[in-house]
Write a structure and sequence with these properties.
Helix content: over 70%
Organism: Secundilactobacillus paracollinoides
Shape: globular
Transmembrane segments: 7-25, 37-61, 73-95, 134-155, 176-201, 207-237, 244-265, 285-309, 321-339, 345-367
Order of helices and strands: HHHHHHHHHHHHHHHHHHH
CATH topology: Proton glutamate symport protein
InterPro entries: Na-dicarboxylate_symporter, Na:dicarbo_symporter_sf
Number of helices: 19
Structural class: mainly alpha
Number of strands: 0
Protein name: Sodium:dicarboxylate symporter
Low-confidence stretches: 405-411
Mean pLDDT: 81
Radius of gyration: 21 Å
Number of domains: 1
Distance between the termini: 35 Å
Strand content: under 5%
Largest sheet: none
GO molecular function: symporter activity
CATH class: Mainly Alpha
Length: 411
């Protein structure tokens, strides 16, 4: 018997919830408590998940890899993720997907963004005074800052294997936390059905129109980002643009159809070496690390969603709020990439942190699989272009594979 995937189950749950909301109206509004419980259960584990994943990713690295090459990798990851978040923000502000439909019930709900009064206060709030307080309050930015520092220290201290037990404990805790999140995600179809039923009961079927607009704008933003990235890497690595795009064709198809960075990783590593000329040591360091820590597509998705939600709720966004949306979009990616339903999990971090209603996440759950197509392609291309740039800088890039006669025979 063919097993129905979680994505299909969530889609069915969204349809059932939508139909129930339209048929029974206000009579089903009470079921939203089931969806609220589901969202709280995800929130319960997600801060611990990010905390452990960042420590494990950095703590597992060889200290030699954390030197010059590690710093360059981290810088490229940061630049591409920041660019992706800015593209998401820019397309959201330009096309205003949240204004395409007026959802009266949403606009009646008074919502205010949680934003500091100035830039210096914003920067100061990144740094924790007490890590346990940051964990208890779910302050994701402070937790990530601590986890990065702790992971770097663990990597250095464990070069002789003296702290291998600590690293093992972190890895095992992460494995259990991922299993916990996966267990909670099994309830996603029911939780999403309950939330959607409540939203449709309050607003009617018009709630789905902005989601189609969102997908179109997200697809456009993805195309803009990829074109920009290919042009930059062609110039930085001094390789022909046509040969570069050709080398990415297969991994883009795999990423788009599977919506999984983990599934695409073997193809990504093989093509990076055979079709894009990246040396094996560079690809083995950058690509697995990128899958765990770098998520251009998710950063773009989160910033676009946040802008759309501010428009749906009729919130006026200040420049400081825009900065906060971009930074949160970049930092919320850490540690959530490896989790099934990573986009949904990441939204449970950033939406309440900004002060937006948690129930609004349900709007995007039903189209998460379609969003995941664009997210995965952007993630895979972002990781591999970073590997190409680093290989070029380290003189470990075979540019001969970019010539048309060689490209055509390599599969």
């Amino acid at each position: 018997m063919h097993k129905v995937s979680l994505t299909t189950q969530i889609t069915i749950g969204m349809l059932v919830g939508a139909i129930a909301g339209m048929l029974f109206g206000k009579n089903v509004s009470g079921v939203t408590v089931v969806g609220d419980i589901f969202l709280r259960l995800i929130q319960m584990a997600v801060v611990l998940l990010i905390f452990g994943a960042v420590i494990e990713a950095l703590g597992s690295l060889n200290p030699r890899d954390l030197g010059r090459l590690g710093a360059k990798t981290g810088l490229w990851f940061l630049m591409t993720t920041l660019l992706a978040a800015l593209v998401g923000l820019g397309t959201g502000l330009l096309f205003k997907p949240g204004l395409s439909v007026h959802l009266d019930q949403l606009r009646k709900t008074p919502v205010h963004l949680n934003t500091p009064t100035n830039i210096s206060q914003t920067i100061l709030n990144f740094f924790p005074t007490n890590i346990f307080d940051a964990l208890a309050k779910g302050n994701v930015i402070q937790v990530i800052i601590f986890a990065i520092l702790f992971g770097l220290v663990l990597s250095q201290a464990n070069k002789d294997g003296k702290f291998s037990q600590v690293l093992t404990l972190v890895k095992q805790t992460n494995q259990l936390t991922v299993k916990l999140v996966m267990l909670i995600m099994k309830a996603a179809p029911l939780g999403i059905a309950a939330l959607i039923a409540g939203v449709v009961a309050d607003n009617g079927s018009q709630v789905f129109l902005p989601l189609l607009t969102f997908l179109l704008i997200y697809g456009l933003a993805t195309a803009v980002f990829l074109i920009a990235l290919f042009c930059v890497i062609s110039w930085v690595a001094k390789v022909p643009l046509i040969g570069l795009v050709h080398g990415f064709t297969q991994m883009i198809m795999v990423a788009f159809t599977t919506t999984s960075s983990a599934v695409a990783l073997p193809v990504e590593m093989s093509d990076a070496q055979s079709k894009l000329g990246v040396s094996k040591p560079i690809s083995q360091l950058v690509l697995p690390l990128g899958m765990a820590l770098n998520s251009n597509g998710l950063a773009m998705y989160l910033s676009l969603v946040c802008v759309m939600l501010t428009q749906l709720y009729g919130i006026r966004v200040t420049p400081i709020a825009l900065v906060q949306i971009v930074l949160l979009s970049v930092l919320s990616c850490l540690g959530t990439v490896v989790v099934p339903g990573g986009g949904l999990v990441a939204l449970t971090i950033i939406v309440p942190t900004l002060g937006l209603p948690l129930s609004s996440i349900a709007l995007f759950a039903g189209i998460d699989w379609f969003s995941g197509m664009f997210r995965t392609v952007t993630n895979v291309v972002g990781d591999t272009t970073t590997a190409i740039a680093l290989a070029a800088g380290e003189d470990e890039l075979d540019r001969a594979v970019y010539h048309s006669d060689k490209v055509s025979v390599k599969h």
